[in-house]
Design brief:
- Helices cover 25% and strands 37% of the residues.
- It is built from 3 helices and 7 strands, in the order E-H-H-E-E-E-E-E-E-H.
- Strands 1-7-6-5-4-3-2 form a 7-stranded antiparallel beta sheet.
Length: 142
């Protein structure tokens, strides 16, 4: 099973980065404008909610590791989003994995590129230079 992997250095401590990957408010600062928290899970809506990703928490070890099971989404269902944060002299080393894809499809390759952009948006949000979510609530463009 292929995985998407990224690593990025962030000039902020893990305690500041962790809420951005573990809360609905955090996700809305760098990924999607349409984020709802419900029963411990998070639902991200895209393209006027025609695409929904429901994330169920699997592991929450503040401020070093957060893991989500993706419950919905054509090729995302059953995959996991893993954020590992390590304190460094300059702030945080973040290792991200989108694990458990069934195969390397064109969509997988597209998502690899999108996750790269999202890592820089997460970095900006953590460093107090928010660029906003990548996907606006009513956006029709991908």
């Amino acid at each position: 099973m292929p995985d998407i992997r990224h690593a990025i250095q962030i000039s902020a401590p893990p305690a500041s980065v962790f809420p951005l990957v573990s809360t609905s408010r955090g996700w809305s600062q760098w990924w999607a404008a349409d984020v709802q928290g419900m029963d411990g899970a998070i639902e991200l809506g895209f393209f006027k909610r025609t695409t929904l990703y429901r994330l169920k928490p699997l592991r929450n070890d503040p401020p070093t590791r957060n893991e989500w099971l993706v419950e919905t989404g054509a090729e995302w269902s059953g995959t996991r989003l893993i954020f590992q944060l390590e304190a460094a002299a300059s702030g945080t080393n973040l290792r991200f994995t989108h694990a458990g894809w069934r195969s390397e499809t064109d969509y997988f390759v597209n998502c690899t590129t999108t996750w790269g952009e999202l890592m820089f948006r997460l970095k900006s949000a953590a460093e107090g230079k928010p660029r906003g979510p990548l996907f606006l609530a009513d956006s029709l463009a991908y």
